[in-house]
Amino acid sequence: MTKILMVATNVDQIADQQTGLWLSEFVEPATEWRHAGFEVVGASIKGGRIPIDPKSYSNELPRVWDGVMEPIHDTTKLSEINPESYDGIFFCGGHGAMVDFPNNKDIGFLLAHFIQNDKLIGAICHGPAAFIGAKDVNDTAVIKGRKVTGYSNKEEKESGLEEDLPFLLEDQLQEEGASYEEGEPSSENVVVDGNWITGQNPQSTHAIAEIYKEHLQ
């Protein structure tokens, strides 16, 4: 069975604001992929229950999401993951990812495996923060020369957290040599570059889930 590792943030606060995973960026792809017969495993740097950004859901969650949310109630620690077991990796967004994804050795180790074995790598919104600081075997940034997207500077300025983040994602992706492709704010934008599939924002989640699925079938 095709197996996908979905990585979420453990960070629940930035400055004085609650944050965490942007819920739809896990649940919508997980729903799509489960319906396609894929197995989804939730993971995070620390493991355990994933904090959810309160702005990413209302009190009434869709009933169809109930079972799909199980993997984020008790995630596996990244350090305990055997990448050989997975066909693809996907980094979910939410502002918390800007804090714990960059420059993380466990993420770097996993990315190295997926790159060397030509496996599928995906990320949505703030999820591409996972690529920041990750190096290949030649000590070169893994995203140097790659076409990617992610939450744009324009979108970040509208979020209200711009001043509290360690960096702006668009700027840092370009700083590490990526070819950043910006779409309109809050509009669907998915960029495919070989085995790398990135989406700009929550509005891109359904499209990236479909494209990612097609690459695994």
TrEMBL record:
It comes from the Bacteria. Keywords: Glutamine amidotransferase, Lyase, Stress response. Residues 24-208 form the DJ-1/PfpI domain. Pfam families: DJ-1_PfpI. InterPro entries: Class_I_gatase-like, DJ-1/PfpI, Prot/Nucl_acid_deglycase. SUPFAM superfamilies: Class I glutamine amidotransferase-like. Belongs to the peptidase C56 family. HSP31-like subfamily. This is Type 1 glutamine amidotransferase domain-containing protein.
